[in-house]
Specification:
Blueprint (H helix, E strand, L loop, with lengths): L7 H4 L21 H10 L29 E5 L10 H7 L11 E5 L8 H25 L1
Parallel strand pairs: 1-2
């Protein structure tokens, strides 16, 4: 798949440009992960076929101190469908409240086909990242 955003400032003018943006997109089969990725990369809908395993990787989450408090953005894609779960149910099923007070998170409703909700979610993620960086700088100064 892609190597990141191409010209992110042109696609999302409200966000500052980054040297690099590393994101992890996880989700169930046919959840719209590839559609989200292409919407972010090209700012357009790209008709895709379901991805079958070739870009699936297992990851291990290390509970290192520097990873604690990493902001989490959950994109609830396909909210335009009648069968979509309400956000409160998504929040409950993913146990987002159990992440703890040190882990900021945001649940963003979206429709990747038309791009609805993606910019808002990324703006929220960006503000959580900036807040975390400020807190980490303050902690370093105290030491």
């Amino acid at each position: 798949m892609g190597n990141g955003l191409s010209e992110p400032h042109a696609i999302f003018p409200c966000l500052p440009s980054f040297q690099a943006l590393h994101i992890v997109i996880l989700g169930l089969d046919c959840a719209g992960k590839t559609t989200v990725l292409y919407r972010l990369r090209f700012n357009e809908f790209v008709n895709t076929v379901p991805t079958k395993g070739f870009n699936t990787e297992k990851i291990k989450i290390t509970r290192l101190q520097e990873n604690q408090g990493v902001p989490v953005l959950v994109v609830a894609n396909k909210q335009d469908l009648r069968s979509a779960l309400p956000l409160c149910e998504v929040e409950q099923m993913l146990a987002l409240n159990e992440l703890g007070s040190h882990t900021p998170w945001h649940l963003q409703p979206a429709c990747a086909i038309i791009g609805e909700g993606l910019q808002e979610g990324l703006e929220r993620l960006h503000s959580m990242i900036i807040k975390r960086r400020k807190m980490m700088r303050q902690q370093k100064r105290k030491r």
